[in-house]
Amino acid sequence: MTSMLIPDFQPYKGAHCETVATGSLLKAIGIDLSEPMLFGLGEGLSFVFLNLATLPLPFIGGRVQPFDLTTALCQNLGVVCHATETSSRTKAWINLEKTIHGRVPVGLQLDAYYLDYFSNPFHFAGHFVAVYGIDSDSVWVVDTTQQGTTHQVARRRIEEARFARGPMAARARSWTITRSDQMMDLPAAIRKAIRSNAAAYLTPAFKGASHLGIRKLSTSLPKWLQISRAPDQDLAQTALLMEKAGTGGSLFRNFYRDFLIESLGHLDQGKELVDRAAEQFGASAHNWAKVAELIQVAGEERKVEPLREASIICKEIAELEVAAMRLLAHL
Question: Where is the Butirosin biosynthesis protein H N-terminal domain (predicted)?
């Protein structure tokens, strides 16, 4: 098979994998929004705390579950998301090949561990890329700017990544996006997304979600030196993922702050509420960066004091974010 790269394809450049992947697909149909706007319209702001037997420390995530962001984003914009899953490697490849040859980019959910361009590979099956090219042995993908944006990846690696099992894994999920006749105007979409995200945050689905999850993290943190078998490595990895990969750190709070600030230019009512909430999420982002820094120090020095300090800050973050979301719920 000769190589097929979608003509005139322009990758979306950004810091978060799902907004980059879905942003690339939206850009291909003429919708080019800022990354904070994509995140906010996707109702992406949340938190999750999970104790998983497969991980050395609890998993913490600062956003909604994988693909929920894309689903909400497409619904709020009024575009059509065509998502499929399969347990067949043959079917998954044929579908991918057929769609790319139809000059339509494809989003994939996969495990980042198998992507050989990651300098520090780690298992995370909630990773996303966009595909814009293919041949019999390779796939051309779009990833975050931290990972170099575009790469040619061996087919074998892509298939391993798509069919990996573990927490957050999907059955080789792929999706495409098309326009519809019922595109929503941006101000209406923004207002709906803000209210929906606030409602979800304030009524967590389980005790490890949203502000309840942040409080569980606060309780857990002082115990991390006892839980971990290799504190210097495990705590450093957690801090790195929080700040660089955005799993639970300041990235998503900064996104949401910037989304709210950008939204002010599209709203005719409730601007004071949104402005106050933006300030609070800015403060939350600053605090999350401090928490990551303290976790890093605790691992390096093997001291519990930084974890206790981080625990106190997490309680403050939970209160701050609840206050901000209560404001936004009245928009």
Answer: 16-144
Give yes or no: residues 172 and 193 share one domain: no
- Say if residue 322 is in the same domain as residue 199: yes
Residue 22 burial class via C-beta count within 10 angstroms: exposed 0-12, middle 13-18, buried 19 and up? buried
Per the structure, how many domains does the chain have? 2
143-152 CB burial, b ≥16 within 10 A, e <16: bbeebebbbe
The model's pLDDT over 235-283, given as tens digits with 9 standing for 90+, comes to 998 998 888 766 667 999 999 999 999 999 999 999 999 999 999 999 9
In a domain, 106, yes or no: yes
End-to-end CA distance of the chain: 54
pLDDT tens digits along 33-62: 999 999 999 999 999 999 988 889 999 999
Residues 272 and 242 in one domain: yes
pTM above 0.90, yes or no: yes
